[in-house]
Amino acid sequence: MSAPLSPEDRAFIRSILDYPEDFTVWLAYADWLDERGDPRAEFLRLMVDHRRAPAGSAEAARTGERLLELRQTLDPRWLMVFDTVDVANCPASNGWAFRCPKTWDSLAPTDEPDIRICHDCKSPVFYCHTVEEARQFASAGQCIALSSRSEERYEPMREMVRLGRMHVDDEYEEYEPPVLPPTEPEPPPRPWWKFW
């Protein structure tokens, strides 16, 4: 899908973002896409099935595998709307023991499609399409969500994100500010009557 989104696409997506638990909107969008022979319809229907399936069930595993296949063929900008990846590098963490329970799809949308807001920690979360992009945002102290399209190619990174251990590169951790030479204290100001 390289063509820009139509007004109808945008209306369906806005409704899904406003009411993500209302699967009738998801299915109505899938029906609309089906009428146009658009392969995104299968993805939306599988997302609904996957969310309704009990965690760990055979149905969840089957739909999860097919969703992973479809993610590799569809436009990453469109997929970003529906991605269910974990949030990492949360500033609310004290050390790395904390793991943010939020996922990208549960965050509040903003006017920027690749930035959402977490209302728990009041932080913006940046959606990253590549590992390099994720490292850059994480090294700047930002919350991130790494695209599910990168799962097979960047499994070590995905594991770090899952564990909430995404943090700055070693070169930033070892940085120590330079020690400046001591300066002489400024003399106290003279009273106004001693200026002449």
Detail the topology: elements first, then pairings.
Blueprint: H1 7-18, H2 23-35, H3 40-52, H4 58-71, H5 76-79, E1 108-109, E2 115-118, E3 123-128, H6 131-139, E4 143-146, H7 155-163, H8 170-173
Parallel strand pairs: 3-4
Antiparallel strand pairs: 1-2, 2-3
Describe this structure in words.
By secondary structure, the protein is of the alpha+beta class. Among the domains are: 7-74, no CATH class; 104-169, no CATH class. It has eight helices and four strands. It has helices at 7-18, 23-35, 40-52, 58-71, 76-79, 131-139, 155-163, 170-173, and strands at residues 108-109, 115-118, 123-128, 143-146. The chain has a four-stranded mixed beta sheet. Helix 3 runs antiparallel to helix 4 (58-71). The chain is elongated, with a radius of gyration of 24 Å. The termini are far apart. 24% of the residues are buried. The model is unreliable at 152-156 and 166-175 (pLDDT under 50).
- The low-confidence runs, each spanning 5 or more residues with pLDDT under 50, are 152-156, 166-175
Structural class: alpha+beta
Quaternary state of the chains: single chain
Strand order of the largest sheet: 1-2-3-4
Biggest pleated-sheet summary:
4 strands, mixed
Give the total of beta strands. 4
Count of runs of 4 or more consecutive helical residues: 8
In summary, what is this structure?
The chain has 196 residues and is α+β, with helices and mostly antiparallel strands. Helices cover 40% and strands 8% of the residues.
